[in-house]
Amino acid sequence: MNRTLAAAAAAALIPLGAGCTVAGNASGGGGSDQIVVGYQSKTINTVTAGTLLRSLGYFEKRLKDLGKADGKKYSVVWQDYDTGAPITAQMLAGKIDIGSMGDYPLLINGSRSQAQGGDARTEMVAVTGYNLRGSLNGVVVGNGSKAASLRDLKGRTVSASVGSAGHGTLVQAARRYGLDPAKDLKVENQQPTVGASALQAGSAAGLAQFVAWPGLLVQKGQARLLYDGGGLNVPTFHGVVVRKEFAEERTKVLRAFLGAQIDATRSLHADPVKAAESVASSTGLPAETVYLYNGAGGVATFDPTVKKRLRDALAQDVPFLKSIGVIQTPLDVGPFINDAYIKQAYGSSYERDAASTANPAAINGTDAVCKKKVDDPAAAGEVWVTGETKTRPVAGPVCLLKNVRALQAEKKQIRAAYIPDATTGTRWFADKDVWVEDPSAGAAKRFVPFATQEAADKYISAHSGAKVVPYGEAVRRA
Q1: pLDDT per residue over 136-162, tens digit each?
Q2: Considering 24, 88, 332, 347, which has the largest number of Cβ atoms within 10 A of its Cβ?
Q3: In this structure, are residues 212 and 300 in contact, taking their beta carbons and an 8 Å threshold?
Q4: Which residues on adjacent β-strands are paired with residue 436?
Q5: Which residues does UniProt assign to the signal peptide (predicted)?
Q6: CA–CA separation, 16 and 454 (whole Å)
Q7: Which pLDDT tens digit goes with each residue over 412-422?
Q8: What is the rounded CA–CA span in Å between residue 140 and residue 206?
């Protein structure tokens, strides 16, 4: 199985599309300089270094200012991929200068670049977004599936992008259920789009993927969440990686990129709805799915600083990836992570902000229906009303239900309603949650939301008299 996974991971590193070419970089010739950026438009946890950054034009603007100062003309080539693997392949070939990808692909990138050595060496220089519990990944099944937990997928085919964070979540979670991923699961190495089609066609019993695929398929009514990655309670994140040679030779350009990423992050925090609409327009993803992850209090916390918990998590993932054959050469994480450039771009508040894990875009305000201040990140949610450019904050699960009922009475159309899972804190679509009524709780806590049926069942088994109720009934009776 290890040899199979290693071969699959190597195959995954082949660039997508036989006709896809990547422009090489040119330094100095004729007073021009071309920078090639590899990104994943639909991996919306990287938008501040990819999709959103590109649409805002912040990098180009900074390069224009830099060009005026040094007499050069800079240009940017943006290359879009479905996963991080082909970005790594192109970086090792010297055809991509800066890339963004998830934590597991980052480790594969670093391992391969350290093994190849020389000009191929790469460095991780910043973070885009993260989730401390691992909720950016998940496993979904078809709506008609009878599976109640990962254990029920034993002996069945599960689609995953081998070497991705979604695949890692599947393997680690399966082990916690007493499954041997090498023997008990048939992992089919597929790109996310192919895996989603396989799930719909029934050729795959489950799909293990990274943001935004679980939320997208659930929101479209094509799947339900079987396993919430937040259950692992292991940090997951996406970051920015650069060719070491490029960083050393064109440090000012890298600083311009990181400065632009910081600008894009602040823009997202200032108006998350506008940012979600922009990303949706660029990718074709529903804005409601984008906002699930990237909105205020979203599943992803956007912060470019390299935090100790994320650095430690990366180091702890190396033995795991080697054990399943995804990386052959153990990565020395210490020299691979270089936050000197982001420190310089960020400024004097870097150390303070790097030490904090508070979401800079937490939900706040006042719940208009419950007449409460919204100040508890673990309970706060939002309702997005059609035609409104701002979401409405809600103080907690029962208050969300009351807000929805009030809006229905006013004949208002709701685009989406979001609330965190009572166990993992994973923010999910309220109408896709499994709601439990607990008569033993007070009126303010009588209805409890869970992203998965398994989590709801565990709560019910521990609370006498608790039972699952349909979302509509919970709205009527809250």
Answers
A1: 999 999 999 999 999 999 999 999 998
A2: 88
A3: no
A4: 448, 468
A5: 1-23
A6: 37
A7: 999 999 999 99
A8: 6
CA distance 206 to 45: 22
The CATH number covering residue 258 comes to: 3.40.190.10
Residues 152 and 286 in one domain: no
| Rounded Cα distance, 116 and 462, in Å | 53
The C-alpha torsion from 233 through 394 and 220 to 301, rounded to 10°, is -40
Angle at 109 between CA 106 and CA 111, to 5 degrees: 110
> If you ran DSSP here, which 8-state letter would residue 300 be given?
S
**Residue 18: exposed, middle, or buried by beta-carbon count in 10 A (0-12, 13-18, 19+)?**
exposed
pTM equals 0.91
Structural domains in the chain (count): 3
Quick check: 241 and 98 in contact, CB under 8 A? yes
149: nearest Cα among 169, 177, 188: 177
Question: CA-to-CA distance for 289 and 195, rounded, in angstroms?
Answer: 18
Output the CA torsion 426→300→169→241 (10° steps). -170
Tokens 């894009």 found at = 264
Handedness of CA 249, 255, 260, 265 (dihedral sign): positive
Supply the range of the domain harboring residue 151.
Answer: 137-232
| CA atoms in the 13 A half-sphere facing the CB of 107 | 31
Helix (H) or strand (E) holding 69: helix 58-70
Could you tell me which of 323, 169, 303 has the C-alpha nearest to residue 238? 303
**For residue 221, what are its two tokens?**
């009514």
Q: Count CB-CB contacts under 10 A for residue 76.
A: 18
Contact (Cβ atoms closer than 8 angstroms) between residue 179 and residue 206: no
Is 3 a member of any domain?
Answer: no
Q: Are 417 and 436 found together in one domain?
A: yes
List the alpha helices (DSSP H) in 202-360. 213-219, 244-249, 251-270, 272-283, 287-294, 308-323, 333-336, 340-346, 350-354
* pLDDT exceeds 60 at position 26: no
Q: Tell me what the pLDDT averaged over the chain comes to.
A: 92
Name the amino acid, one letter, at 378.
A
Q: Rounded CA gap, 267 and 265, in Å?
A: 5
Residues 263 and 193 in one domain: no
Q: Is 277 helix (H, G, I), strand (E, B) or coil?
A: helix
Starting at the edge strand that comes first in sequence, how are the strands of the sheet with 427-429 ordered? 392-394, 381-385, 414-420, 427-429
